[in-house]
C-alpha cells in the first residue's frame, strides 16, 4: 500500500516489510480477498439452488427428481466450500468460530460419498465407503469442518 511521506506529502511505494509473506498488510489483504471471492461465488450458487427449486415445481419423473436431488446436494456442497473460504478469511482475521454440536459421522460420510460418487462413476471407478462397526455413530464437533 502506498504510504504518505509526512515531510513532502508524496506517497512512497510499499516496502518489502509491507508486502513480505506473513506481514500484517499481506494477511489483511489475503483475508479481504478471500472474503470477496467467497461473496462473489455465493451469489451464482444461490441462483443455482433457486433454479433447482423452480425445476422441482415442474412435472418430473422419479429419475429426474433423483437427479435434481443430486444437483442440489452438489450445489450445497459447493456452498459449504465457499463458506470454508469465507471462514479461512475469518480465521486469518482471528474471528473464526467453531460450532460444536452432536452429529452423525455416517451422515457426514454419506453426504461426501453422494457428492463424489458421480465423478468416480464417470471415470469408470467404483466409489465404496466402509465405516467400521466399531466407529461410534455420534460425535461432537463441527460437521461442516469435518466434511
Give a structural overview:
There is one protein chain. The chain is mostly helical and 147 residues long. It folds into 2 domains: 12-97, Helix Hairpins (Orthogonal Bundle), CATH 1.10.287; 98-147, no CATH class. It has helices at residues 16-19, 24-56, 62-92, 105-122, 143-146; strands spanning 3-4, 11-12, 101-104, 138-141. The strands form 2 sheets. It has a two-stranded antiparallel ribbon with strand order 1-2. A two-stranded antiparallel sheet has the order 3-4. Helix 2 runs antiparallel to helix 3 (62-92) and helix 3 crosses helix 4. Residues 1-9 have low confidence and may be disordered.
Question: Nutshell version of this structure?
Answer:
The protein is mainly α.
Shape: globular
Number of helical runs?
Answer: 5
Number of domains: 2
How much is the radius of gyration in Å? 22 Å
Give the H and E element order. Answer: EEHHHEHEH
Averaged pLDDT, please? Answer: 80
**In percent, how much strand structure appears in the residues?**
5-15%
Placed side by side, the strands forming the largest sheet appear as 1-2
What's the CATH architecture of the largest domain? Orthogonal Bundle
Q: What distance separates the N and C termini? A: 37 Å
CATH topology of the largest domain: Helix Hairpins
Name the helicity range.
55-70%
Low-confidence stretches: 1-9
What's the CATH C level of the largest domain? Mainly Alpha
Main sheet overview: 2 strands, antiparallel
